[in-house]
Amino acid sequence: MASRLQIRLMTWDVKDTLLRLRQPVGEEYATKARAHGLQVEPAALGQAFRQAYKAQSHSFPNYGLSCGLTSRQWWLDVVRQTFYLAGVRDVQAVAPIADQLYEDFSSPCTWQVMEGARTTLMQCHKRGLRMAVVSNFDRRLDGILVGLGLREHFDFVLTSEAAGWPKPDPRIFHKALQLAHVEPAVAAHVGDSYRCDYQGAQAVGMHSFLVTGPEPLDPVVKNSVPKEHILPSLSHLLPALDHLEGSLPAP
Ligand SMILES: [Mg+2]
Question: Which of 105, 180, 195, 205 is the most buried (most CB within 10 A)?
Answer without folding.
Answer: 180
